[in-house]
C-alpha cells in the first residue's frame, strides 16, 4: 500500500509539472523590460516570449505580435523552443506510459512485473522531460542575465526574468521529482526460499521384525 501511495503521489506531481511546462511554453512573459535606471517609462510594459512579443499600455490594454519568420529568430531561441516542445511531447508519452503502470488501473493486471516496469519507465521519461525544460529555461535565463549585466547594453533595452521562467523552473522540478517518486515506487523483490521439507520419521522398530 505504501508503494501505491508513493506511486500516486509521483504521478500527480509529475502531471502537474507537465501542465506547468505547457503553460510556461505558451506564456509571453519569458522576459520583461527592466526600468532600472534614469530613463523610467511607465506608459507601457514590454514582454517577450518564445512565440510572440507583447506590450501592455498604461490603460491595461495588451497588444501582442507573433514573430513573423522562423528564420529571422536567433538560433538560441529556436533551440529553446525545440527543447520545450520536446519536453511537452515527452511528458505526453510519459503520462500514457505511467498510467498504464499505475496500480489503481486494471491494465496488465495479469503481469505485475511488466506493470511495475511501465510505471518506472514512465517515471524515467518524466525525468527526461523535466531535464529538457530545465535546460531550456536555465539557458534562456542565463542569456537574459548576461545581456542585463553587459555594460554595452543600453539601459532602456535591458530585460529581466519574466514570470514564465519561474513557472518553468518550478514545473521542471515537479516533473523530475514526480518521476523520481515513480521510479522509487517499485517494491523490492523479497527473496523467497523454497519451503523446507520435513524428513519422515522412522517408525519405531519392534522385535517382530526379527526372527
Relevant terms:
Butyryl-CoA Dehydrogenase, subunit A, domain 3, single chain, 211 residues, alpha+beta, elongated, 5-stranded antiparallel β-sheet
What would you note in describing this structure?
The chain is of the alpha+beta class. About 3% of the residues have low confidence. The longest helix has 38 residues. Strands 4-3-2-1-5 form a five-stranded antiparallel β-sheet. Helix content is 53%, strand content 10%. The termini are far apart. It is built from four helices and five strands; from the N terminus they run H-E-E-E-E-H-H-E-H. It has a domain of 138 residues: Butyryl-CoA Dehydrogenase, subunit A, domain 3 (Up-down Bundle). Helix 1 runs antiparallel to helix 2 and helix 1 runs antiparallel to helix 4. The chain is elongated.
Percentage of residues assigned to helices: 40-55%
Low-confidence stretches: 190-196
**Largest β sheet strand count, sense and barrel closure:** 5 strands, antiparallel
Q: What integer is the average pLDDT?
A: 81
Radius of gyration, CA atoms, in whole angstroms? 29 Å
> Which fold name fills CATH's third level, the topology of one domain?
Butyryl-CoA Dehydrogenase, subunit A, domain 3
CATH class category of one domain: Mainly Alpha
The CATH architecture of one domain can be named as Up-down Bundle
Give the strand order, joined by hyphens, for the main sheet: 4-3-2-1-5
**Beta-strand proportion:** 5-15%
- Any idea what the shape is? elongated
Number of strands: 5
Name the structural class.
alpha+beta
Please give the count of helices. Answer: 4
H/E element sequence: HEEEEHHEH
Q: How far do the termini sit from each other?
A: 67 Å
Amino acid at each position: 500500500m505504501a508503494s501505491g501511495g508513493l506511486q500516486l503521489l509521483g504521478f500527480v506531481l509529475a502531471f502537474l509539472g507537465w501542465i506547468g511546462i505547457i503553460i510556461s511554453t505558451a506564456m509571453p512573459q519569458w522576459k520583461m523590460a527592466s526600468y532600472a535606471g534614469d530613463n523610467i517609462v511607465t506608459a507601457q510594459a514590454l514582454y517577450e516570449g518564445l512565440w510572440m512579443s507583447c506590450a501592455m499600455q498604461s490603460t491595461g490594454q495588451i497588444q501582442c505580435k507573433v514573430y513573423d519568420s522562423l528564420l529571422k529568430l536567433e538560433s538560441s531561441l529556436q533551440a529553446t523552443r525545440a527543447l520545450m516542445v520536446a519536453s511537452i511531447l515527452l511528458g505526453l508519452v510519459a503520462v500514457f506510459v505511467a498510467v498504464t503502470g499505475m496500480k489503481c488501473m486494471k491494465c496488465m493486471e495479469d503481469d505485475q512485473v511488466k506493470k511495475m516496469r511501465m510505471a518506472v519507465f514512465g517515471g524515467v521519461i518524466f525525468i527526461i522531460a523535466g531535464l529538457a525544460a530545465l535546460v531550456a529555461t536555465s539557458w534562456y535565463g542565463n542569456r537574459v542575465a548576461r545581456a542585463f549585466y553587459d555594460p554595452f547594453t543600453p539601459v532602456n533595452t535591458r530585460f529581466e526574468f519574466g514570470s514564465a521562467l519561474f513557472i518553468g523552473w518550478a514545473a521542471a522540478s515537479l516533473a523530475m521529482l514526480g518521476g523520481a517518486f515513480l521510479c522509487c515506487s517499485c517494491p523490492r523483490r523479497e527473496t523467497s526460499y523454497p519451503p523446507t521439507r520435513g524428513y519422515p520419521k522412522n517408525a519405531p522398530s519392534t522385535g517382530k521384525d526379527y526372527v
